[in-house]
Design goal:
There is one protein chain. This protein is mainly alpha-helical. It contains 18 helices and 2 strands. It has a single domain, classed as Up-down Bundle (Growth Hormone, Chain: A). The protein has a two-stranded antiparallel ribbon with strand order 1-2. The radius of gyration is 21 Å and the shape is globular.
Length: 484
């Protein structure tokens, strides 16, 4: 709820806000992450969707990449619309949209329809990130901003964990209802329903904030206009490349080109309106570094179960999924710890850049070590789980550091557009990572090369961060006061 201070500025219960946004992250990430384990199940059980496919891992990676194509393309429009219609309005629209699209994903009987629904799910979820980061910035005291971002984004790890842990039993439940062929539908139905509950609960919470004026229809019209164009573009690329017989990595590359076209459109048509977040050298370097961050996230977020299964010599789906949980669960510690450390460094006058770049370097070196372990025949699920967990601690900790640093460098009126642009650029990595990694797995018969490529990309991201100058921070937003 929001009260009013003597100066007529709203005072928010920011900790309760954190809880609701954390739940939003949880269901959103469970909805998107479940695709990876479900595709692995389809491949293992030769479900009709993948029967006769010569390169099933490439196809599976492509499905993940197309989801992120939708997610990527609405990053900037979602933030831009949030700046116009209200960030809280866009958050509710995003979560409810994702719940409906996830349920419908489980209804599809044709591969093209399944791909289209995954793209539509991504298009709706793409409006969440930029508005979530903006609301935290607006309603949280500045000295707790990074910690709040870390606490909230813990939902990412909880959602990843739930997707890895719940998918096998939900598929088992689905088998008893729909048979082996349709068992994969059950996770979509259950998670989609839970997402809708969170979306309606979020609306009820925001409604209790006296200054909340939802304009859902206008926001939905605005988002739908972008969605129709992007859906036609992404599914069109998919259909044309299939017809032409082009490999999956080419298709993912063409989708990334769509992102570059959108970025060019933003510069050409919105350049004057949002110039402070387009022509800021330091922000642009953060955008570029985020390509490496999201490449890493969705390499392991999509393929962790398969990596654990292959590296261990073909362990069961359930045991491999439990091992993959170590990558996800580390964020429950890493995200809030990284946020707290970034705030501590800021208060001490050290700035956030040093700690951010150090953690990026450590992540790259740990991933490189994991690659060497696999290349030398390492098969222990225990060792793989430990490597997942330790590297993920540093990876998850560095994300709220980067978010808070970017917010420090952005004026309040441009927060939605800035976070949207950051994730639009960064999601190029998420689009390319599952597909290219799947192609490497099919080509080499192992995950070693894909892990080494991931490590190299992370280390390039570290070098990019070194060129950021943590100066010229934007003025802190006024009217944010502490409330319990």
């Amino acid at each position: 709820m929001a009260a009013t201070s003597a100066s007529d500025r709203p005072v928010y219960r920011y900790r309760t806000l954190w809880v609701w946004l954390l739940l939003g992250w949880t269901v959103s990430y469970a909805d998107r992450t479940v695709t990876g384990p479900i595709v692995s199940y389809m491949i293992d059980n030769d479900i009709s969707f993948v029967q006769g496919v010569e390169s099933p891992f490439s196809l599976g990676g492509l499905i993940g990449s197309l989801f992120f194509a939708g997610y990527m393309l609405t990053q900037f429009p979602g933030g831009y619309l949030g700046d116009r219609f209200g960030h809280r309005t866009m958050l509710v629209v995003s979560v409810v949209w994702a719940g409906i699209a996830t349920i419908l994903s489980g209804v599809m009987t044709a591969l093209l329809g399944f791909v289209a629904l995954r793209v539509i799910t991504g298009l709706g979820e793409g409006a969440f990130y930029s508005n979530d980061r903006s609301v935290i910035t607006e309603q949280t005291p500045p000295e707790k901003r990074s910690f709040g971002m870390g606490v909230v984004i813990t939902g990412l790890s909880i959602g990843l964990t739930l997707a890895f842990v719940l998918t096998p039993p939900l598929i088992g439940l689905g088998a008893s209802v729909f048979g082996t062929e349709g068992a994969w539908r059950m996770p979509f139905f259950v998670l989609g329903a839970v997402t809708l509950v969170v979306g309606f609960g979020m609306h009820a919470f925001f409604k209790g904030q006296g200054d909340f004026r939802p304009v859902y229809l206008a926001a939905l019209r605005g988002l739908s206009g972008y969605t129709v164009v992007f859906l036609v573009a992404v599914v069109g690329v998919y259909a044309v490349t299939l017809w032409a017989g082009l490999p999956e990595w080419v298709m993912a590359g063409l989708v990334a080109v769509l992102a570059l076209v959108l970025i060019g459109f933003i510069f050409g048509n919105k350049g004057g309106e949002v110039a402070p977040i387009l022509y800021n050298r330091n922000l642009f370097l953060i955008y570029i570094a985020f390509i490496a961050i999201l490449w890493h996230l969705w390499f392991f977020g999509f393929w962790a179960v398969s990596i654990a299964s292959d590296a261990s010599g073909g362990e069961s789906f359930s045991r491999a999924a439990l091992t993959a949980v170590f990558f996800a669960v580390a964020g429950i510690l890493g995200f809030p710890a990284g946020g707290w450390l970034a705030d501590y460094a800021k208060v001490k006058g050290w700035g956030r850049k040093g700690m951010l770049s150090s953690f990026m370097l450590i992540l790259g070196l740990l991933t490189l070590g994991f690659g060497f372990y696999l290349s030398n025949g390492g098969q222990s699920l225990l060792v793989i789980g430990v490597l997942f967990f330790v590297s993920s601690l540093f990876f998850n900790a560095l994300q709220p550091m980067a978010h808070a640093l970017a917010a420090d460098l952005t004026a309040p009126a441009y927060l939605g557009a800035m976070f949207g642009m950051m994730n639009l650029v960064g999601e190029i990595g998420a689009v390319l990572s599952p597909a290219i990694s799947g192609v490497l797995r099919d080509a080499t018969g192992a995950w070693n090369a894909a892990v080494m490529l991931d490590a190299g990309i992370v280390l390039v991201g570290f070098v990019v961060l070194l060129f950021i100058r943590e100066t010229g921070a934007a003025e802190e937003p006024s009217g944010v006061e502490a409330a319990s």
